[in-house]
Design a protein that fits this description.
8 helices; 2 domains; minor pseudopilin epsh fold; Helix Hairpins; three-stranded antiparallel beta sheet; single chain; alpha+beta; 11% strand
């Protein structure tokens, strides 16, 4: 992904993940929230041609090299764009089963996602040695900043579930497991 960044198309229709994730939430989440991250990231990088030639993953991975004047905007909106672009691909209307290596992480992941205070993400990540672990990040922070490779990620910002689940995050997380695209992962 390079500047100018664009909103990726979903690999399924907005209603494809029902009844687990409703059509209206998907539309708003994709066309309003994710589009907002894209627009604000592009605006932040407008006057920085040296960053415009880099892949977003490279920029996010090395946030300290981003000029301080735009670092927070790049962290928030670049993280939002890269996290969501990944998130859409790891969901599918076709039910699949996790490989045995991942099954043992479901309970730990669910507990981490449920326990995030405020907004953020739960992740299964791989470190440089390929070891898997469960981590959380606040806001739109990406595990890439910590040199971790995202394998599975769940958006637990209220915009991801509030229309259907209101304040019942645990129900959203439980339902979300039904749309995880294990084949992609």
């Amino acid at each position: 992904m390079k500047y100018p960044f664009k909103l990726p198309q979903l690999p399924y229709s907005y209603d494809a993940l029902e009844p687990y994730i409703d059509e209206q939430t998907m539309k708003i989440h994709h066309t309003k929230h994710h589009q907002g991250y894209v627009d604000k990231l592009n605006a932040a990088l407008e006057g920085y041609p040296e960053l415009q030639t880099k892949e977003l993953e490279e920029i996010i991975h090395d946030l300290n090299s981003v000029p301080e004047a735009i670092r927070t905007a790049v962290r928030n909106h670049g993280g939002g764009h890269i996290n969501h672009s990944f998130f859409w691909t790891i969901m599918s209307p076709e039910k699949s089963e996790p490989p045995p290596a991942f099954a043992k992480y479901e309970e730990e992941f669910t507990k981490a996602a449920t326990g995030i205070f405020g907004s953020g993400w739960a992740w299964i990540v791989a470190d440089a040695a390929g070891e898997l672990s469960v981590v959380t990040t606040p806001n739109q922070d990406s595990p890439l900043v910590q040199n971790l490779k995202p394998i599975l990620g769940l958006d637990v910002w209220e915009h991801a579930y509030y229309l259907k689940y209101q304040n019942r995050r645990a129900e959203y997380i439980e339902a979300w497991w039904n749309v995880v695209n294990w084949k992609e992962i």
